[in-house]
């Protein structure tokens, strides 16, 4: 079977769904292909800072999320070796929320047939049409072929689309992380503050999501800790018992085992983003497919939302200027403009995240000196302002009257 679409987005994660919503706002229908049977919530929770909330404002969904979660105005970083505790002030509107709630809020904005689940991509090819114009043919495992005027890879860290574009391979940071939810049926009693605990090579922390749930993590150097959830929980407790305080250990003991996940912390080198080929004709990438990063500044989700708005703005302007038509040649320019706008911003955020993590988790004397003397007093505030104080802009207004090509269907 062969299908024709204007825009195909590979991956129904944050970047994929947000991009589909952005395109819907400018009158462009997109088909989202997701290999899973439903929305995936790997990672459990995420933190969104002011830059992410500005993007959600542009997408028209922030009002659904803000009432559900209380901001975290500050956090505390405890050096477990010295006992020193530092207070860290966060910008306004820093909230930690369930990843699945964000995905559902985005998916609710789309037409019921806009997301095609259980769609495994096995291959795709670019169909040149002369000049800069091109189309993409996506081949699915079930034998379906989808031809599209625009293809956007939002298919995560191990992106098939990014690999096809020839982007630099990922680099292992030398660290990995276990993440999960802790549930206290009677209430956990913690204030709405972020708590971090640092050892020479390990980092742990938690932040409340609501009165009964907390998001927690453990990041360390060393062996893989994947496997059964109970074993992951036991491994974390064994590594932390002699290092971290009892309040953190109690959080881990209250883990919802079904929420636990382990992953190596990977990133794409910033020079691979600056000099890499982030698009070819009408094919490009967004989110983790473009700029996978370590989670040390908690801005992976925010950067993906920024991508969606910027991509929606450039594609929307082309669509509107061409009388509500996807014109392949002009669309290639729109995608190129998107890449030019995002390239340096993405490389900077990846770099800032890596440096933040490197300075927090390292046993070299000079790293410990910088961490204890400069990181939270000077460097972290500068990094935060650089990353979080950013406005990705607004989407263009459409003026096609009743002609909304992406209106929701029953």
TrEMBL record:
Q: Which Pfam families match?
A: FAD_binding_3 (PF01494)
The record ties this protein, via Gene3D superfamilies, to: FAD/NAD(P)-binding domain
Q: What SUPFAM superfamilies does the entry give?
A: FAD/NAD(P)-binding domain
Q: Which positions fall inside the FAD-binding domain?
A: 6-351
GO molecular function of the protein, one example?
Answer: FAD binding
Family statement: Belongs to the 3-hydroxybenzoate 6-hydroxylase family.
Protein name per UniProt:
FAD-binding domain-containing protein
Identify the species of origin: Populus trichocarpa
